[in-house]
Amino acid sequence: MFQRSAAVIPGPNFPVKPEEFVGRKAQIEAFRRALRQGLATGRTPSFAVLGEWGIGKSSLLLKCSAICAEPIFNILAVAFSVSKELADYRHLQKHCWTRSARP
């Protein structure tokens, strides 16, 4: 007898891997356009992803982070929670700025 195996679909607490991400083509292309424009002008924008629990925000952010790491962009994506970790982000920013200023 054949036995059916249930497909494993990530739950809301388990974002999909960037290489498995599907959909949201318009948002992904808008993100790529913004990165290209930012690199051309020297002013790369900041992004925020907002929405209800379980709609794929984390998966989208992981995909966008992977796009940032592509050789054409070579951008370090830094994710943080504004409500809890802004001080940590500022510390990281200061540390990165200090290290990049060294000869």
Topology:
Layout: H1 25-41, H2 57-68, H3 82-101
Explain this structure to me?
The protein has 103 residues and is mainly alpha-helical. The protein has one domain (18-101). It has helices at 25-41, 57-68, 82-101. The longest helix is centred in the C-terminal third of the chain and has 20 residues, at 82-101.
Jot down its keywords.
3 helices; 103 residues; mainly alpha
Summed up, the domain count is 1
**Unreliable stretches, pLDDT < 50, 5 or more residues?**
none
Mind summarizing the main beta sheet? none
Mean pLDDT reading: 78
**Separation of termini?**
69 Å
Helix-strand category = mainly alpha
Provide a short characterization of the protein structure:
The chain is mainly alpha-helical. It has helices at 25-41, 57-68, 82-101.
